[in-house]
Amino acid sequence: MKLLAKTFHGLEEVLAEELFQLGAKNIEPKKRAVAFEGDKELLYRGNLHLRTALRILLPVMSFRARNERELYKKVSEYNWSKHLDNSKTFAVDSVAFGDIFKHSRYVGLKTKDAIVDQFREKTGKRPSIDVEAPDVSINLHVTGDRFTISLDSSGESLHRRGYRDNRHKAPLNEVLAAGMLKIAKWDPEIPLFDPMCGSGTILMEAAMYAKNIPPAWHRKKFSFMSWPDFDKELWEKIRKEAEEKFESPRVTIIGADVSMQAVDIAKQASLEFRLNREIKVSKAAFENQTPPFKAGMIIMNPPYGERLQKDDIIEFYKMIGTVLKRRFTGFDAWIISSNFNAMKNIGLKPAEKYTLFNGPLETKFWKFKLYEGSMKIKKQRVTNK
């Protein structure tokens, strides 16, 4: 069957590689998504294992409509009893682009009306709507007059791993953090340091990856579990196989943050997920930190400037560059920020550059190789050998 995995802009190739490793066929990266083909088992495995997917959709119908009457008619023609009955709740999540249908919520309401009216006409009753936790999630995508309606097999977004709560302020999205680790080519043998770890998203994603714990391991519910053809035995088999592949590697994952509250939240998350042996976190301002190991990888998400004045944020990023140059030679440092002007003031030449999105927020993800002395001097040393 044809499927579509949604992700953030900039992570399409990373997600495509994940799908390839899972055994997907006919993989085709698109904008903020990857199309692929697979069976029911792959659908289940994808929901459990994909670290850079937000949700997995099963398209069930595509059509064109120029107005609301055509939209209603097309949706009404589809046999929704294949996926839904009056005992189950449902919700329609809609996104519309273009000049014809400008209001996503409106096309979602018309789609909902068509589905409800079909059941009322056939059975005299109608299924209920539940926008918070529906049994069946329906996804509607509109571009111009082109409609694609899909069943959302995931339900709640896959970025919700379960280790964050409402105490986490301005967090880095879990899917983005996982993608950053993959782009940086981090593996458990490389010591990892996040000197501005906040509530620990990068640390948690790294530890779960190192132990081969699926990102959705702690989730109890997926929308595909409410589908008529849900295979509970197959799902339990996939879960058991995943558990048998858990690992306990020797890994160095260290974080620090200036906020004691953030440190406490990070520690609590690692404890609840039984990752406290892999993750060590302490309170420290970056300007006072020294390397926790001789060499390795730094991945950091410094403040973008929301709570700092313009001059202060420039000076802050200059300080980051100074500390990296003076204390962290031998490290690879990766920095993500949406403040492009501040990034330029780090004072180091990026070795690699990526544009990523943290939700709707455009960011730059840059790699800095922290050599002793300049690149020129290092090259001369190599040449003179």
Structure description:
By secondary structure, this protein is of the alpha/beta class. The protein folds into two domains: 2-152, VC0802-like, CATH 3.30.2130; 174-212 and 224-379, Vaccinia Virus protein VP39 (Rossmann fold, 3-Layer(aba) Sandwich), CATH 3.40.50.150. The protein has eleven helices and 14 strands. The protein has helices at residues 12-22, 40-49, 68-77, 104-123, 174-183, 201-210, 232-244, 260-272, 310-327, 340-344, 375-384, and strands at 2-6, 25-30, 33-37, 55-64, 90-97, 136-143, 146-152, 192-194, 253-257, 279-283, 297-300, 332-337, 352-358, 361-369. Strands 2-3-1-4-7-6-5 form a seven-stranded mixed beta sheet. The chain has a seven-stranded mixed beta sheet with strand order 10-9-8-11-12-14-13, with helices on one face. Helix 9 (310-327) links the parallel strand 11 and strand 12. Helix 2 packs across helix 7 (232-244) and helix 5 crosses helix 6 (201-210). The longest helix has 20 residues, at 104-123. The N and C termini lie far apart (58 Å). The model is unreliable at 374-385 (pLDDT under 50).
